[in-house]
Design brief:
By secondary structure, this protein is of the alpha+beta class. About 30% of the residues lie in helices and about 30% in strands. Helix 13 crosses helix 14.
Length: about 650
């Protein structure tokens, strides 16, 4: 009597409006809210109301025909992929929304792929038919992209107007009056031929998944509705068939039919996880202004009551109260069964991804956090914010582990990494909620310096200040190499071996700041081949200074050059956007490494300098209308073109002079 489903799909595909309609039609609220007005149950945070899109997963508990259905309304933007993945680990079925006017998009495929990896039963709900789109053409795209698609509904169009749907699975039609009223009627004569074709396809697709039914069908026996319904349920549960339904959250078409499909197609928690002692997982953590840290927990199996204690990796967790979340509300309950989504306030010991159990710790569904793709320098707006920043960042990363905070010792910057520029903007807004104002600035590029040719020079440090002096004399040869190497070729004891360590220390210290623009030096072999010392005045410090001088003198003669980090990109875009992507990358000094396809999407493999792709998230969204995504990984260092190197070196000189 319980179903737990996640609404997933591309941004703007109607998930939140659909969730709102599910609540409204089942009596969960008295009035339909809208995303535009900021009145939906799902998008209740100030950030979501301001931006008009979902940022976090919201929980909508629904009561329908004696069943409890937990609907998880997830974000659509790829920037918030961690929330999407977390919701799918908490669900027993994935409901993938596809906008009829927009068709299969990158968010469709990415959500589908995550659900597939989790071995979740899946279905598709086609939304926004009231705004246009060709359902039957979309159906073919879904077949080619997603596989075993089973259309159990198709639209009833009359006079060019969408007036209802034909329920193929149950052999009926549902007509809507446009004002919330619905009527179950006979299939109209105009749709009977199409209905017969779809009905045959549905019948045969379901029968093919059940050996017993297949034998009966081939023998000419009539297949009764109960046997067909059971086979349909098990086929969806096993991932052999993916039902396609139609619903419009805006005008409330297909909402009851969608709810019925949830019950008929998706498994109960007991079917997926069996029976036994309580087993749960924290799939989301959120810090609320008045109640502190709230852990959102999926109970996979078992029964919980207030006062029960569960085990965790952080020790026992006593559940003094049990709450069901409903958007921003927390509704206290006296008992929770497997399948329930719970909210546990003041849960400072609980972290996202943590398992909770009683008696037996079994594996729970899990996904790994994605690698971030975008970063910015984090600068506190005021000095007073610096002290509070550490704790605020801890809370932020606890809420969203796809964010990553890094202190870069080389550039002296605090850096915040995320899944895109919108993700970083949300993080900035969230830090403000914690009372810490920050600015996001373009980060410094970690350039490097190296040498082109072999050279040698002397470094001699001689100082007399009265009393004991300082003396160190080092002859150094530098050669281009793959990595750093240090060779000691001193003969005849012209420099005692006891100074070897100090000499290398001096070389390494000098290599932290090259002669061109003060960037670290890489890719060289340092060979110490001659020098001299003084019995009294030589010291470790003197040879360290002499070696540093030798390095600077030699590097200046070794044809130094500036290097920049180059990153590999894997870009997912619609096929018709490939030309724009390639043209844009070439304008960013990018190099195309290859192209492939995944489903309906093109995959462009490329590499480009980091300096050119710091704001690639924003550029890709602009180029593709929000239908692109990418991953990023460091590749190598490469020479900066001379005209750009001159500018970078000049800027570094000006900065050093002013600083």
């Amino acid at each position: 009597m319980i179903r737990t489903v996640a609404l997933v799909g591309h941004s703007q595909s109607g998930k939140t409006t659909l969730g709102e309609a599910l609540l409204f039609v089942t009596g969960g609220k008295d009035r339909m809210g809208t995303v535009e007005e900021g009145t939906t149950t799902s998008d209740y945070t100030p950030e979501e109301k301001a931006h008009h899109f979902s940022i976090r997963t919201a929980v909508l508990p629904i009561d329908y025909q004696g069943h409890k259905i937990f609907v998880l309304d997830t974000p659509g933007y790829a920037d918030f992929v961690t929330a999407i993945r977390g919701a799918l680990t908490a669900a027993d079925g994935a409901v993938v929304t596809v906008s009829a006017p927009d068709g299969v998009q990158i968010g469709t495929e990415r959500a589908w792929t995550v659900a597939e990896r989790l071995d979740l039963p899946r279905m598709v709900v086609v939304t926004k038919l009231d705004k246009g789109g060709d359902f039957f053409a979309l159906l073919e795209d879904l077949r080619q992209t997603l596989g075993h698609i089973l259309p159990i509904h198709f639209p009833w169009i009359e006079g060019g107007r969408w007036i209802g749907l034909i329920d193929v699975l149950h052999g009926r039609a549902i007509k809507y009056d446009g004002e919330g009223g619905r009527q179950v009627v006979e299939v109209p004569s105009s749709e009977q031929e199409r209905m017969a074709g779809f009905r045959q396809e549905v019948l045969e697709s379901i029968i093919e998944t059940d050996e017993r039914l297949m034998e009966a069908y081939l023998e000419g026996q009539e297949i009764d509705d109960d046997a067909l319904a059971e086979a349909f349920h098990h086929a969806v549960r096993r991932g052999e068939l993916y039902p396609v339904t139609i619903a419009s959250g805006k005008n409330l078409y297909g909402i009851e039919a969608l709810l019925e499909t949830f019950l008929e197609a998706f498994p109960s928690p007991k079917e997926r996880f069996g029976e036994g002692p309580p087993l749960a997982k924290v799939f989301k953590v959120q810090v609320e202004p008045f109640v502190g840290q709230v852990a959102y927990v999926r109970l996979y199996r078992g029964t919980l009551r207030p006062g029960d204690t569960l085990e965790s990796e952080n020790g026992p967790v006593k559940l003094n109260h049990l709450y069901i979340p409903k958007g921003p509300e927390l509704i206290e309950i006296k008992e929770a069964e497997g399948g329930y989504i719970l909210a546990l306030p003041k849960a400072d010991k609980l972290h996202r991804g943590m398992a909770l159990w009683k008696e037996k710790k079994d594996p729970v569904p899990t996904t790994r956090p994605p690698e971030p793709t975008t970063y910015a320098a984090l600068v506190p707006a005021e000095k007073t914010d610096e002290a509070k920043l550490g704790e605020a960042l801890r809370k932020l990363v606890e809420e969203d582990p796809s964010l990553r905070f890094v202190y870069d010792e080389e550039t002296g910057e605090m850096q915040l990494w995320g899944m895109g520029d919108m993700h970083l903007e949300w993080a900035k807004e969230r830090l403000a909620d914690y009372g810490v104002a920050v600015e996001l600035k373009t980060p410094k590029i970690p350039y490097r310096e190296t040498i082109r040719k072999k050279a040698q020079a002397q470094g001699k440090y001689k100082k007399q200040t009265g009393g004991r002096g300082q003396y160190g004399d080092v002859w150094l040869r530098l050669e281009p190499a793959e990595d750093y190497e240090f060779l000691w070729e001193i003969k005849g004891g012209v420099i005692p071996t006891k100074y070897k360590e100090s000499v290398e220390k001096g070389i390494k210290e000098a290599a932290r700041s090259g002669v061109l623009a003060g960037y670290p030096v890489m890719g060289f072999r340092a060979v110490v081949f001659d020098g001299s010392y003084h019995e009294v005045d030589s010291s470790d410090l003197a040879f360290q200074v002499a070696a540093s001088m030798a390095f600077k003198n030699t590097m200046a003669k070794a044809s130094p050059l500036l290097l920049e980090p180059v990153y590999k990109l894997k870009i997912f875009v619609p096929q018709d956007k490939v030309g724009d992507i390639i043209s844009d990358l070439q304008g960013r000094r990018g190099k195309i490494l290859g192209m492939d396809s995944e489903g309906a999407l093109a995959v462009v493999q490329a590499e480009a300098p980091l300096a050119e792709i710091l704001e690639y998230s924003r550029a890709l969204r602009s180029l593709t209308g929000g239908q692109g995504a990418y991953s990023l990984a460091f590749s190598h260092y490469a020479e900066v073109p001379p005209h750009l190197a001159e500018r970078i070196i000049a800027e570094a000189g000006n900065e050093a002079a002013s600083g």
